[in-house]
Batch of 2 targets.
Target 1
Amino acid sequence: MFSLLLSTAAQAWAQSAAGAGGAQQQQGGGAQLFIIMGGFILIFYFLLIRPQKKQQKERQNMLDNIKKGDRIQTNGGLLGTVTGIDASELTVLIAPEVRVKMARAAVAGVLKRSPDSSSKSDSGDSSDKTGGKAD
């Protein structure tokens, strides 16, 4: 499909660049070029923009649904259990008696949901990108 669009775009460009026809032929080539450009815009939307927006929405949903007791993995690779939640920060237990404060945005994924939060969460949110599953 992509090669067909490219060949059609090349033909339209060649016809409009040649200028050997009447005004009606040039106008048809211009309309054809606009159709090709619209096709490219649709391809970019469905292959690049739409999936990226969906991924951003899923990540934001994951960050918003973090609860106390959830086991998380950070972007740095640390594993820990959430013990406290603020608007933009989390307190995470990473070892016995070792708690760290970190930004919510530094969470790479939720590995295990706490038992009380799994009953409140969506049934479609049972696994995340790290491969963890809900209890």
Target 2
Amino acid sequence: MDAAPRPFAELPVDPELSLPVPFAAGTDVGYGDRPVGSVLSARDLDKRRVTQCALSRTCGVCGAGLGRPLAFLGTRAELDRMAFHLPASHVECAQALLAAYDGAPGPLLGLDDPPSEWVLVTTASFEFVRPAKGDADRRPVFSPNGLLTTQPG
């Protein structure tokens, strides 16, 4: 397993997109659902890393322990549902990821479609919701317990 936590500037880079690959994406080759020998990708999230972030309260971007407030970076649709796929992160990590990913092409961070608009929200706590057996969307989500701030990306 790769070294965590890592400062944002030291995150590995997706060779296709030239974007930093966050901790929740599985930042070491051969970890999670990615076969050994495959390349890092900013397009997907690693389900095991997502769960690790939720249960250990670690930042989905850098892998370090979280305090408060917590930040969630996602799409307007995720905010409307109050169900984010990228784990909670430090506010500074979410802001840095937003700056790096804004305008990037294609689906990113486990999203089905390219985001038309990013949003960054802060909260004090969240619920981790694992998918039920019959759910069409098998990805776990993070549901903030009330928002402290919301800002468009």
